[in-house]
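Sorry, can you check?
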Amino acid sequence: DPVRYSLAEAHAAYEQALALRRAPEWEFELAVLRGISPPTAPDTYVQSLFDEYAPRFEQHLVEGLNYRVPEQLLAAVKQIWHSQSGVTHPPDNLDILDLGIGTGRVGEFFRPHARRLVGVDLAPNMIALARRRRDAAGRLVYDRLITSHLLPALREFDQAFDVILAADVFIYVGSLDGVFPAAARALRPRGLLAFSLERYDPPPGSSAAFDFRLRYRHSLDYVRSLAQAACLTEIIAVACPLRNDVPPGWLVILKK
């Protein structure tokens, strides 16, 4: 059985560890133990979490948690393409940026519609798995992979993409204040930013909540205010199941 510690013992253990070595991920976890909501998760925390998780990530997510966000994102984007153009078959010549790719499941769904597909992730072990991923036709899913936090990666591009995807990514980012302007700059006119959120219905004046699972939930009002400031127009904001370990969240698509 796992050893169980009291909250006071956990505080003391983190404080002793930090006295020996400063580590942003330990400071982050100690802040959470103290009931503080950090504005964002440190890169080192996210990287170590997903590097360790990589070998069992997809099986746990899909088979264990019934994760279906990639399929839902593609269906929603197809709905927009159909409503705007009237065509049944979506285009197959899009430049797509996939943020927080994990093992590349989202990219595999969108590959048939991509002329170029670029993937971004902080965790090298996830990038290594995504690099080998192929679609049903045997093609490598990604044309380029970037090991980076999403903000520096977004800021590398100027009007370079038709679609930017972020499936189950913002729950590990926290503050999205810098994300939406950078995404708007990286999108071409009429480009789409499509993402999922864990749902938060906040008291007045609150934008995001941080919970004991070390994940962030965002309010739709907060996202809408950021979208408006970045000149992104809401096309879809619909409640949807995310995984079977969390309540239904939001599927959102914004248009430049």
